[in-house]
Design goal:
Number of domains: 1
Helix content: 55-70%
Mean pLDDT: 85
Oligomer: single chain
Shape: globular
Largest sheet: none
Strand content: under 5%
């Protein structure tokens, strides 16, 4: 079972690397595709009834979030910042914010040497959700709580915890997979809330 899992992970890594190399050969930098194509200003905090029409691209966006999360964590490490970066680069209707990315830079590995705090992928997902639909100053934060609770449910079901050490044990320290799946699930939750994706 463990060998099959390793083969699957290795084949995914090869696919992601080959895709990345192909895109770079075409003159595209995978890490900047979405960020460079978005407006950097004019983004307002999203509210309960805000909706974006993404056509039938939902599954592609969700897959892109997984692929980028896996690739970024494997290449750069840092589960919180890699989760934030993959969400920023996969979800085109949300502009990238360098301040949000920088804020996530010290939150990987449970942000502690003991790894007994929240998983950085969970924390990064929460930071991104808070950034897109949190409150400006002490307003109603029900929507951001609703969405992070959905992410929490996913982590509980998948790993039985949001604690870094427990997730590492459950996922056999396969952090790229944890980040990829966290970005994937968070993207799905966001698309269901704010787009025509079903």
């Amino acid at each position: 079972m463990k060998k099959n899992k390793e083969k699957l992970v290795n084949s995914r890594r090869k696919f992601i690397k080959s895709t990345s190399i192909l895109l770079m050969a075409c003159g595209l930098n995978v890490e900047n595709i979405s960020a460079s194509s978005r407006k950097k200003s004019g983004f307002k905090v999203l509210e309960e009834n805000d909706r974006f029409d993404i056509g039938n691209t939902g599954n592609q966006i969700i897959q892109k979030a997984y692929d980028l999360g896996f690739l970024y964590e494997e290449k750069h490490m840092g589960c919180a910042r890699c989760t934030v970066a993959s969400l920023q680069d996969a979800i085109d209707f949300v502009p990238a914010d360098i301040g949000l990315f920088r804020s996530a830079s010290c939150l990987d590995g449970g942000a502690t040497q003991t790894k007994l705090a929240n998983c950085g992928a969970f924390t990064g997902a929460g930071m991104f959700i808070g950034w897109i639909c949190g409150t400006e100053r002490f307003g109603d934060n029900k929507l951001s709580h609703k969405l992070i609770h959905e992410v929490h449910k996913y982590f509980q079901k998948e790993y039985g915890s949001v604690i870094c050490k427990k997730i590492r044990d459950s996922a056999e320290s396969n952090c790229p997979e944890v980040v990829g799946k966290a970005a994937q699930r968070t993207t799905e939750i966001i698309l269901k809330q704010f787009t025509n994706y079903e």
